[in-house]
User: Which sequence fits this backbone?
């Protein structure tokens, strides 16, 4: 059974940082490109970042480029998202998913507020 379990979401002040993690199981993690997607309150899903299976290519949306860093540890079946310089517009539930979006985690909530 494919499982993706996110963690690391929290309430953080503007300008702060968070690191999200996603632990994968039930499939050959290193063989799949992975992505982070977020959904802000009242809005549709927004693709945030992606990474190739071999860690060689990384992609970012314009809204997070320069502030977020995606990474993965294939030995630990873990996908990460380091988020810096957070602002209110980053408030959302963050999901990790396989690139084809055939499997998603349940998400972890990030709230950026004073």
Assistant:
């Amino acid at each position: 059974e494919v499982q993706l379990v996110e963690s690391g979401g929290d309430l953080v002040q503007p300008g702060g940082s968070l690191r999200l993690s996603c632990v994968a199981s039930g499939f050959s993690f290193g063989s799949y490109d992975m992505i982070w997607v977020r959904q802000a309150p009242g809005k549709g899903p927004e693709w945030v970042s992606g990474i190739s299976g071999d860690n060689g290519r990384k992609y970012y949306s314009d809204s997070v480029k320069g502030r977020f860093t995606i990474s993965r540890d294939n030995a630990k079946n873990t996908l990460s998202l380091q988020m810096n310089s957070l602002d209110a517009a980053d408030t959302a539930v963050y999901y990790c998913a396989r690139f084809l979006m055939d499997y998603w985690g349940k998400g972890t909530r990030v709230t950026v507020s004073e």
The mean pLDDT is 97.
